[in-house]
Every structure is written in structure tokens, then in C-alpha cells.
Amino acid sequence: MIADLHDLYQEVIVDHGRRPRNFGSLPEASHRAEGFNPLCGDHLNLQLKVVDGIIQDIRFDGVGCAISTASASLMSEALKGRSVAEAETLFDSFHAMLTGDQPESPPDLGKLAVLAGVRKFPARVKCATLAWHTLLAALHQAQQPVTTE
Ligand code: ZN
Predict the structure, then answer these.
(1) For 20-52, what is each residue's pLDDT tens digit?
(2) Which domains does the chain have, with CATH numbers?
(3) Which has the least CB within 10 A, 4, 10, 16, 107?
(4) How far apart are CA 76 and CA 26, in angstroms?
(5) What is the pTM of this model?
């Protein structure tokens, strides 16, 4: 595990884990959801401002490990300005990268591909996908908090 940590905590992940982008709250949010990953203790509040089907702004806060924080930060950067439909497509690609049969990251993921190494650590996959499951809950106006368990 130690030898692979270098792989897992690549520079981008460390950077986003330490200095998460779009961290905070969004008072004018139109969509929000809360996510938990009890296995690791990650807790995330996600807020989105969606206008005419476009994600105009996105913020998150909460407490999480480096992987969950970096994933939420990278997701927030990737989603700003995208349509809801594009966000759902990205969710599918991201989820497939971490849990699917395809060995390499899909081409449309861009910077999100830095998290591909997490697939080698099944316990951490939930850390990396928490923000995305919370995103879907927010977009679908789920009333219950999301949990990965
Ligand atoms: Zn975690």
C-alpha cells in the first residue's frame, strides 16, 4: 500500500485536497444535497445554482479525507458552466473509471482522470465518488441525505 500511495496521492490530488476550489456556501443555491461516507467519515454539503439547465455556480463544504475533498474540488471545477445533462454524462464516465471494467480513464474526463489510481483501492472509491453521488441527489432534489453505505 505504501509504495502505491505515491500513485494515489498525485500532485493534483494533494493540491486540491489542501486547497479545495469552490469551497464554502452558496446562499443563492437552487439545488443542494448532503452526502456521507460512513466508512471513512467523509461528510459533504453540496450547493448548486442551476439556471435554465446550466450549472452556473457550485460550492461545497464539509469534512473529509484528502481524496474526498480533492474529488469534490475537481468535480466543482469540471461542472461549472456545464449543462445538467453533461454533468450526468460525466458522472457516468467518472463512475465507470473507478468501478467499471475499462482499465483506463475515458477521454472526456480531463483533469478528473487524476483520480483513476483510486480504483486500485476499493475502500477509497467511495471517498472519490461521494461528491458525485451527492451531485446526482442535488440535481434530482433528493430529500434524504446520500450515504455510500
Ligand atoms: Zn474518505
Answers:
(1) 999 999 999 999 999 999 999 999 999 999 999
(2) 2-143 (3.90.1010.10)
(3) 107
(4) 13
(5) 0.90
